[in-house]
Amino acid sequence: MQSLSGRSKVVVKKEMTLAERMYLPAILGGVMITLRHFFKRKTTIKYPEKKREFSAIWRGHHVLKRDEKGAERCTACGLCAVSCPAEAITMTSGERKKGEEHLYREEKYAVTYEINMLRCIFCGLCEEACPKEAIFLTDRLVSTDYGRDGFIYGKDKLVEPVDKRIDVTKRQTPAVLEFKKHKEFSHNK
Amino acid sequence: MAKVTIDGIEIEVADGTTILQAARQIGGEIVPPAMCYYSTLKNSGGKCRACLVKVAAGSAKDPRPMPKLVPSCITTVQDGMVVENITNPTVLETRKGVVEFLLLNHPLDCPICDQAGECDLQNFAYNHGVSKTRYEEERRTFEQHDIGDKIKLHMNRCILCYRCTYVADQLTDNRVHGVLNRGDHAEISTYIEKAIDNEFSGNMIDVCPVGALTDKTFRFKQRVWFTKPLDAHRDCPKCSGKVVLWTKGNDVLRVTARKDQYNEVKEFICNECRYDHKDMNDWVIEGPRHIERGSVISQNHYEKIDLVKLKADVERQLKFQEGKRLNEANNTPA
Questions:
Q1: ipTM score here?
Q2: Between β-strands B2-6 and B81-84, what pairing exists: parallel, antiparallel or unpaired?
Q3: Is residue A90 within 8 Å of residue A123, measured between CB atoms?
Q4: CATH number of the domain that A101 lies in?
Q5: Which residues of A touch B221 (CB under 8 A)?
Q6: pTM, whole model, 2 decimals?
Q7: Residue B334 clears pLDDT 70, i.e. is over it
Q8: Which domain holds residue B268?
Q9: Contacts across the A-B interface (CB distance below 8 Å)
């Protein structure tokens, strides 16, 4: 009977030679593959001594930026949290008091801001949603740990230190950089 | 009775109805947006120019078109009137201009503003505006005021729709606030920041289309779209007691009156309901509040689906689609 799919193979019982019965061609074939890999370029690197180059737009450990005067840019608008597909971001907001203008840029600020790094999938949607250029993903790695507790990153780990700024200029598109040149827009003041 | 045609749809309405009300009786996309008109407040409307429409034929007796676009919220219909709203490219173009004017002095501080997510101006600008501004001058700024101990006034955000002054006029007995100065300097104010302690004064928060008047007890507590709106009621001797609770977990963060599909309150609530009963046990919960699918508040919001209502809604939409006749100019994206 003819097969419907036409893909069936007719199995023939073929007598194996002595060498084949001793698995010699099969073993030699395997050895050849192993030998070939000795001379190929290695796909792994020796990690702690040698580090791979990061892409300019690598999405790692988040940073909450400060402005030129050192005030926090984040206003706790919640757009990052609402855009987050993993629901990793939570925050509470508060009102800036008189005399705190050097600490917070706008009249509302994030009292707490937490990212659960176990939930985070580093998609970068928070960065895209942010209207205040406050949150960026950087080329720093989130370190591993044995416990789970340390993975909820608060403001202490996210906000950049005033004296040790984190450079994110590589992440900004030419369109953004062009926009920033226009000082007449209130956004850039 | 007067027969009017709005965007090709004919409807018979009572004499003295405005074009906007007639359009609302038809419903759907052809309803002009309104920022200052408020159906439950007398004399409101005619200020923001958001609802401008083209009258292509004045009436059956005098079928000449009206020379300029007219505000639909204060123009009454006449028999045989032909109105063009979304079918007229000039109207759509003008609306972009209106958005630009309304946003001239608006601070655009939506990330801070408590109204964001349920703001009429945000929706209006999003649906009808352009994303760029040509305005380069300094924006007009005012100091923030407290109106009483429960209401915060951000005059910067105000679009001078006068809705709140109508609330003060019509709902409360002692009018203590109004609009001072003229033109660019006009601002809402109370005399020497006199506290407003009328029982219904809190309603000016609900009628405010922007974030100019916000609830101080809810100030910066939570973004609206992270709260869960619930329909609830209680026995209140002063008002109907029908409210919306905006909750997070078991906490009632804010109490507002119920707004209809045009963001208008039909039954105003008293200050006691609004401010003093922030406890779940004070209220009889009816169920989740219906939130429009397009609203940001609808994310993670679940409500029981009323199948009968849904079916009626789908049928109404289909009927609307059949009756809809758009000319070529509007079919191509602008």
A1: 0.76
A2: parallel
A3: no
A4: 3.30.70.3270
A5: 93
A6: 0.79
A7: no
A8: 222-325
A9: 37
